[in-house]
Amino acid sequence: MAPRQAFGRRVNPQAFPAQPIPAPQPVAAQVSVPTVTPDDQPSLDAELSAWKQERGSQFRIPWSQLSLMASLCFGIASLVLPDSVNSNVDWLLWGLAIMSAWVWYSNRRKKKLTSPAAP
Questions:
Q1: Taking phi first (over 0 means left), then psi (-120 to 50 degrees means alpha), and beta for anything else, what does residue 38 get?
Q2: Is the Cβ–Cβ distance between 75 and 56 less than 8 Å?
Q3: How many CB atoms within 10 Å of residue 68?
Q4: For residue 77, how many other CB atoms are within 10 A of its CB?
């Protein structure tokens, strides 16, 4: 009977001869005396706050996309809901759709006015 090949990535331990593991060599550790005194170093809190300020968060909420999506969802909801529900919230959904569409349009117009003109 032929030897079976191992399934997947498993290696057959009999395929490779065992190699002796070399004994670890002791390494002499060198200890150096710190040249800076603890009074000269900034506190851990100050260093952490400086790091956070330097790193900063570049995330901005995409209000334009959110308002466009909200206006589309409110408009579609006013058309899709059954008449029993739609009669109670129809004006509310259309009002929300119009307000979010206005926010999207005003933000888009504001960006267009403030962006530099392309040559």
A1: alpha
A2: no
A3: 18
A4: 17
10 Å CB burial of residue 81 (0-12, 13-18, 19+) is middle
CA 58 to mean position of chain CA atoms: 11
How do residues 60-102 score in pLDDT, each as one tens digit?
788 888 888 988 998 888 888 888 877 778 888 888 889 998 9
Please tell me the total number of residues recorded for the chain in this structure: 119
Radius of gyration in angstroms for the set of CA atoms belonging to the chain, rounded to a whole number: 34
Q: How far apart are CA 103 and CA 101, in angstroms?
A: 5
